[in-house]
Amino acid sequence: MKKSYREALHDAHAEALRDDPRVFLVGEDVGRYGGAYAVSKGLLELFGPERIMDAPLSESGFTGLGVGAALGGLRPIVEIMTVNFSLLALDQIVNGAATIRYMSGGAFSVPLVVRMATGGGRQLAAQHSHSLEGWYAHVPGLRVVAPATVADARGMLATALADPDPVIIFEHVGLFAVTDELPELPQAVDIDRAAVRRAGSDVSLITFGGSLPKTLEAAEALAAEGIDAEVLDLRTLRPLDVEAILATVTKTHRVVIVDEMWRTGSFAGEIAALLAERAFFELDAPIRRVCSEEVPMPYARHLEQAALPAVAGIVSAAREVVGDHE
Amino acid sequence: MKKSYREALHDAHAEALRDDPRVFLVGEDVGRYGGAYAVSKGLLELFGPERIMDAPLSESGFTGLGVGAALGGLRPIVEIMTVNFSLLALDQIVNGAATIRYMSGGAFSVPLVVRMATGGGRQLAAQHSHSLEGWYAHVPGLRVVAPATVADARGMLATALADPDPVIIFEHVGLFAVTDELPELPQAVDIDRAAVRRAGSDVSLITFGGSLPKTLEAAEALAAEGIDAEVLDLRTLRPLDVEAILATVTKTHRVVIVDEMWRTGSFAGEIAALLAERAFFELDAPIRRVCSEEVPMPYARHLEQAALPAVAGIVSAAREVVGDHE
Amino acid sequence: MNELPDKAGCLALYRDMLRIRRFEERCGELYKEQKIRGFLHLYIGEEAIATAVVMHLDQRDAVVATYREHGHALVRGLPMRSVMAEMFGKVDGCSRGRGGSMHLFSAAHQFYGGHAIVGGGLPVAAGLALARRRVGEGGLAACFFGEGAAAEGEFHEALNLAELWHLPVLFICENNRYAMGTALERSQSEPDIHAKAASYRIASEWVDGMDVVAVAEAAERAVAAVRGSGDPFFLECRTYRFRAHSMFDPELYRPKEEVEEWRRKGPLVTFQRRLEEAGLLNEDELEALEREVAREIEDAVAFAEQSPFEDVADLARDVYTPRTAT
Amino acid sequence: MNELPDKAGCLALYRDMLRIRRFEERCGELYKEQKIRGFLHLYIGEEAIATAVVMHLDQRDAVVATYREHGHALVRGLPMRSVMAEMFGKVDGCSRGRGGSMHLFSAAHQFYGGHAIVGGGLPVAAGLALARRRVGEGGLAACFFGEGAAAEGEFHEALNLAELWHLPVLFICENNRYAMGTALERSQSEPDIHAKAASYRIASEWVDGMDVVAVAEAAERAVAAVRGSGDPFFLECRTYRFRAHSMFDPELYRPKEEVEEWRRKGPLVTFQRRLEEAGLLNEDELEALEREVAREIEDAVAFAEQSPFEDVADLARDVYTPRTAT
Ligand SMILES: Cc1ncc(C[n+]2csc(CCOP(=O)(O)OP(=O)(O)O)c2C)c(N)n1
Ligand SMILES: Cc1ncc(C[n+]2csc(CCOP(=O)(O)OP(=O)(O)O)c2C)c(N)n1
Ligand SMILES: [Mg+2]
Ligand SMILES: [Mg+2]
Fold this sequence. Notes:
The complex is a heterotetramer, with two copies of chain A and two copies of chain C.
Chain A: E1 2-4, H1 5-19, E2 23-27, H2 43-47, E3 52-54, H3 59-71, E4 75-82, H4 83-86, H5 90-97, H6 100-103, E5 113-118, H7 133-137, E6 143-145, H8 150-162, E7 167-172, E8 179-181, E9 195-198, E10 203-207, H9 212-224, E11 229-233, E12 236-238, H10 242-252, E13 255-262, H11 267-278, E14 288-292, H12 301-307, H13 311-323
Helix pairs in contact in A: 1-8, 3-5, 9-13, 10-11
Chain C: H1 7-32, H2 47-54, E1 62-66, H3 70-76, H4 80-87, E2 105-106, E3 111-115, H5 121-135, E4 141-146, H6 153-164, E5 169-175, E6 178-179, E7 182-183, H7 193-198, E8 203-208, H8 212-229, E9 233-238, H9 256-264, H10 267-277, H11 283-306
Parallel strand pairs in C: 1-3, 1-4, 4-5, 5-9, 8-9
Antiparallel strand pairs in C: 2-3, 6-7
Helix pairs in contact in C: 1-2, 1-3, 1-10, 1-11, 2-3, 2-8, 4-11
Bound molecules: thiamine diphosphate (TPP) (2 copies) and magnesium ion (MG) (2 copies).
One magnesium ion binds at residues 146-148, 176, 178-179 of chain C.
């Protein structure tokens, strides 16, 4: 059955709401509007306003409410319309959701799911195009996932809801319209493991979320040049599947990391650091990061495209590391 | 003249307020209370309530007000009591201060200075011990500095105020009581350059802010073992002095990075990534990061000490990288 | 019923509103032609507010608006050419094509955006007002925002600061009854917005935002109050958005009849009828106005069309202010 | 003047307050002995509030408090031993020594902290109340906070959500007139805190927080109102903090005479006088009470002393919930 990423998310929500009366969805315009990205369209009609709660513009307020509801035994899904607005809720996530279990000595867990759209590429300019996955992945106590495929979009919500701790789900705005075959019966998704999306032997392209399609496209282009790239989709940014990362590098000895964050302080930097620590003797060439240029995102299309990671950039970075011999 | 870091900051404020009528200080308890860390003690009496403004608990409000005041021609110094509370003001910094010049096509600059205390080590537990310098250093449009010495505490404020763009100053809570000799006449501080705090040839210890004293202590301990460590204080986290980083590594070929952020997504990771990209062939051993353990900061002293970077940890990491030969 | 201004005054009001209306209708078409991209939020139905408020401001004043700010920019005097070129993402745009529809800026017009984080403009306006007050020439900051912003914490923080610190801010709430798809009654426990100002001791008034003369009178009083007292004033204008929230909005949340009903109360249609009845506007004059406006718009489109895109080599320009400017 | 409860009731009130007072006095000493570290915020002077509010809560209810929460924890029934051990950073502490003074938690007592981000507890309480409402047993969430929190955006967001969504939250503002060194009048344009609730249509009342009987009566009404209506209620208790904000506060911001004046109005001294005058408390009874309380405190100290520190090997325990718990 062919489904879009958006539909997969929708179905996952409908299923979760149906299967567990503790689950509810709260966020701006999730109900009557149908969701800013139409993920929750129709759910209000199916589940009613107690389960699909249209929130006022109060990111901190309704995220904190999610923390409390989770503490109180419910299973809230908080939709923050986009990561850009999540800055307003960050305190509740970092100082609340992520910390309560530890600082209470294990007295309480916070089984909260927070979803948000992320990323650029739609000409929404400097305040609406952030990629901040790495910030969330920095915080102990959180689990951070970035479904990059339709199957993961379908499966990760259930896994996140089954998690006793807070899970942040990043949905890249460029993925909502992507379609793929899905099996009739939903599959459980093991969110602890990275996935090799394309096997290869010459170079490892490591990425996640919205950069996966570009990276796969680059891998195809490289194949045409005779460079056999392996593409690793991290899927879960915290905790990292270190084993999978080391495995691909041990195989190819060359690495390009693709990430839409700005280069300095990017999550790609974390992967590079990890390799410089733990796979140093496996590396045959400098690591390359393909990230966003260090500019607030410009509106004009040609500038935005120049600022974002692009297939051509991935290809040339891969060529470079394959060309670089010691 | 012997001065504490706290006094140096105080003097820098007094000087700036005296020299430029556009300068004012706004923040919680900067006036009548004297500043949470006593930096601004006595300034209200000297400069009056129009220049030293006690703000209500409204981090987003008064930081945004600082952005507006800077746009309007003033030179605000916004004191956010600690980095922990800066999460509440992050939107104004990231989507406001950092972006306005770019997204206005250069129409407006935001000459704003934001200061905040940072770091752990005082048994203040999980909500009061964050180190998030790397998050700010991720954001184009900001300049981020971390004075680690009394001289830098004295000099960086003036340089920051002279900057036409927003500057974030991190003052580590462990430094306020540190004292050092200061020349009678204040010295201009070039905040664009990192500083070699100890020259050495066997290994580079790269750090900043509150971790500098520990790192210097570790270097002394290493010297006693016959390992000659160079200590590089980054001073400015954005933009990075890449030249200085490459220079020390080109000299020693071995690197330990010390940073109080949690390891995953630490700023140390950025430095490591940079080296894996740009100094790969200079490195003779895996890079080591000495960071905080990945736990919300515990209150109990023995646990907190175990969670924070420590001299012993730096020493053993340095030993390791010096021992590791290809 | 209020009294009409003299003929010239009436025609000016009508012309300013018509200019916004036709400009935006054209923008809607250009969006479908993909000349304009990203988000486009039309002000159609609300033109009376910007028109009748901004006319009372002068060069001492600062204007802060939201992503729905074409009208404000036009009446503030930004050349239509530079606004249209901005929406085209061209280098002659008022923000060099970096901002787009949501981020119009102009130093010459003291037009401070174009903020797309709901509520984010309010503290900035408070800061601009502080700077105005220090200059002491009676200038104020006029801050426009939607009723949706009233749920955000920053609304509350900014109102408190403005009154507490006696800042000359004119808050103008454009209450169009919806925040995206969320009706006012579903986002506010107290839906009477102007009453909220009282809880901060801010003088406030509400006015029929469809009646341009009523808004003009209220705004005149409000501006005089701010200039006279130096304190803030809160003006709520009750209005309605005729079009979708943005070009992505399927408008599932309100019946077509409701929109139709409001259209009949629209600021242009009602004012035109009134002028005709008072013998102040005849068909020839109307046609002449339409022609004049159409000519200006087509000139702006032609200008935007021929304006070049910024050179990609300048991508990083204006992330920081050139140092020589210090 | 209100009527006294019967003798047993009076003695219980007096005893509960005395227990908090003596406990905290002892904590102050232990801080000087460096047995307790980090931040220590004493509730001395405000004991009537926790005492007289919490007595009306039962096992269905959740309690959310701030960093000044020893009193609330004690009257809620957390064993004094576990509270004292927590302050010592010991493994038998109610938060295993991870939280310290600011972060007391207990699942058995539905005591949800111990939040040290001002204002951060309010949305969490709203969420707990939502969960209570869903369970449908009449439980509520009682949320304590200082008047300083009323300036934070989250205060506003939480009040709006609570009323809008009919959440059974009892908001208790402990208005002790200062937020650290900032007097209420300098932080609020409208210093009448309980009046703010009205602007959200929340029923509210203020009461003399120094009169334990008055608070008990008001709290009884308030709890009944919340249980009866399912809607929030806002109770402002006007009180005063006799001690410094924390152990670091030099108290520059208020005259000693002001403190002295308030001490004379203190909840213990006035209630004791009243009981003596009413013949409900004699010297022997008083002495017996003091002895009983002293014994409990010394027992708690001894317990805390002998309790072990947590094994450092367990540092990372409880960052996440053990998966088997799912
Ligand atoms: C903090 C924040 N949250 C969410 C959004 C997404 N968003 C953009 S406009 C809007 C509705 C705003 O409504 P209102 O303030 O009434 O202004 P209007 O669009 O009606 O003019 C929303 C939810 C945003 N831009 N900023
Ligand atoms: C968001 C935030 N900003 C600043 C602080 C630092 N701080 C801790 S307590 C406090 C004063 C709070 O006053 P109030 O709410 O009246 O409570 P009180 O201490 O008087 O009980 C401040 C400013 C904080 N903990 N959280
Ligand atoms: Mg609206
Ligand atoms: Mg207080």
